[in-house]
Amino acid sequence: MARPPTVAQRRLIEAADPVTGRLRGTPAQLDALVRRGLAFRHPRPPHDHFLTPAGHRTREAEPAAPAAAEEPASAGEGFAARVGGEAEAPVSGAARLREVRSAWQGLLELRRMTNPGGATDRPCGWERTHLVRAAALALEAAGHRPAGPDGDGYRVRATPQPEAVAVHAPDEPALLACTATLERAGWQAGAYTEPRTRVRYLLASPRRT
After folding, report:
1. The whole model's pTM is what?
2. Chain segment 74-106, per-residue pLDDT in tens
3. Cis omega before residue 46 (within 30°)?
4. Among candidates 28, 27, 46, 30, which has minimal Cα distance to 38?
5. Fewer CB atoms inside 10 Å of the end CB: C or N, the chain?
6. 27 exposed, middle or buried (CB, 10 Å; 0-12, 13-18, 19+)?
7. Contacts of 206 (CB under 8 A, 6+ apart)
8. Torsions phi, psi for 35 (to 5 deg)
9. Omega within 30 of 0 (cis) for the link into 5
10. Each residue of 104-147: pLDDT tens digit?
């Protein structure tokens, strides 16, 4: 597990701009946050530093809950999006809602900082390389319930297609609701029927324009 941020690093994180996550500090301090996956350096001048989703979660975490700072340090790796069908029953409640909301806001900020023109209405590069997790986060952030070990809910799975995921839901209304959510989140999604089993599912991919 990654070490929790130092007191000085925590101060930098807490002092970040509350909306954009923009950080101020010495080059050494900012580089240290980048190495821990809590910040990223914008590729365009003036190359400012901003909180990653993991950095946003660290800032919003309760001070008395060190486990939130012990997540893996690489950007985007600390938050586990619920893809549905996890072996263990998912933790729910206010803490999970805060975590999901923070991760989604952090992802929108990544879109703004890395997409051409600062567009937030379509997925960014990170989402295109983490398709299953990105689609699952969009669904959970909109209030959809992931499937438990034996329960109903959405399930997001990889497909042989390079830029598409399959989304399964318990019934047609739920499938349509998932379609609407993903389209609002910048994905394109269409319903298909598996020829052999006749199971209905969505094929979803990140929209480029």
Report:
1. 0.65
2. 333 456 789 998 766 556 678 888 888 888 988
3. yes
4. 30
5. C
6. exposed
7. 122, 123, 127, 128, 131, 134, 163, 186, 187, 188
8. -60, -30
9. no
10. 988 898 898 889 898 999 999 889 989 999 999 999 999 999 99
- Single-letter amino acid code for the residue at 68: A
Question: Largest alpha-carbon pair distance within the chain?
Answer: 60
Q: How far apart are CA 52 and CA 92, in angstroms?
A: 23
Amino acid at 105: Q
Residue 64 confidence (pLDDT) = 34
Among 39-48, 51-60, 81-90, 161-170, name the one with the lowest average pLDDT. 81-90
Strand 49-51: give its sheet, edge to edge.
22-23, 49-51, 39-41
